[in-house]
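This entry is listed as follows:

___
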Amino acid sequence: MCAIHAEVCARWPLGPVCKSCYRHARTTPGTCPECERTRVLIAQWNSRRVCGPCAGHTDPYACPRCGNPRSYMVRGLCDRCTLHDQLDALLDSVPAAARSRFEPMRAALAECDQPRTVLNWVRNSHSARLLADLAAAERTPTHEDLDGLARDVGRGDAQTIDYLRGILVTYQVLPERNELVARIKRHPEHALLLSPYVRWSLLPRARRASPRPAGSKHRIRWAYTRINTAVAFLTAMREQGLGLADVTQHQVDAWLAGAPSTRYEVRDFVVWAARRGHSHPLLVPHRPKKDPVGLDEDSHWELLHQCLTDTAIPLDVRAAGAVLLLFGQHLARIAALPTTSLSEVDSHPVLVLAETPIRLPEPVALLLADLAAQSPPSGWATNSPRHWLYPGTRPGQHISSATLARRLAAHHIPIRPARTTALVQLAEDLPPAVLAPLLGLHAVTAQHWRRRAATDWTAYVEARMSTWDGGAPVLAVVNRDAPPTIG
């Protein structure tokens, strides 16, 4: 087959086969040109590779149950038939009264495009074994069951539990819940302080800043970071025998100096505690940040033109680059854009990033429409009930911002300079009161970019139209009721 001298692994009707060719043929069955069925092509007919039956031979690799190629991973059956059996065994202990809640999950996993991916999860994953243990209890697992397990295990096992929780919530086995409030219960020794902090400070800001699903995951991570940092701070002070009311500036400075700069996120909690009288006024400086550097105008619009026209670049990279270069969005928000963020207003395509729909020009609208219409990546996430412009490999999840950043960097799109340039240019044309709800920015952040732009936007008061002539797009507003337009 490969014309390379190697040890013979099998003898097929077409001749002796080495181990490499055998593995490739078994793991990647082809379409037989005679019967047009997916088979392991072990024979030859009229100078073409065909399956065994089409050349008058038996098919030793056919699944006895469905006739599809047998699995290379397990003996006897194909991947899908094996998966059906494994799922039945996994959920066999679930009580009959609760089995209907698992049925959507079982159906979605059993019918995914890549059964081998789910089979690997069922056979080898810690989360699948945990699900089997919960099912063996002969009752439907609950959030409280998973919380109890999370309190008794290490960080790695807690991540496994959170992974399983996400799968069960995605397929509606478990109801969705507010994970911010639930996380406090994992630290009962600090609940007296953390509960009001989360309820009256973090939650209102997270809800106000994230009215749409596109930013929900980003805001949850934002809140998790502040909760975890506050827990670490309170725990460190307690280990020194100090209550929050006894902490001095010296202890705060020593704690900040003892680890990476992520500890500066405790500023939010410390400011809140001092305002509520739980502590002395303590100073935590803002986390040090480098002054952002932008692109020159020619480079910025050249990159945008490349994203809109260069078909050699993958579609997802072109679309993400266009949104980044036009609207200066964080990659975490771009990665979390749902398909519902694309819609129409008065027969014009619009993109909703926060509260205000943005009217799109035809090249950008077509690019994003093509992205939404393309087939999702193969894997067990394909049948997920949630739909993202950038679907991930986990059920119900979009891709991570780190993955999207690697794809953009591979095509030489500088993320931070591109975002800086886009926001400065938008702040030159739009006042902060318009820019903030348009792009999902905090009012203070919009004011910051306005100061960086440092130009007079009084011309914004006069509504203006702009045209797409191949030059730099300009954000404009036709009237107070119509959505903003990229012209």
Observations:
- The chain is about 50% helix and 5% strand.
- The chain has four domains: 8-55, 79-177, 180-275, 297-486.
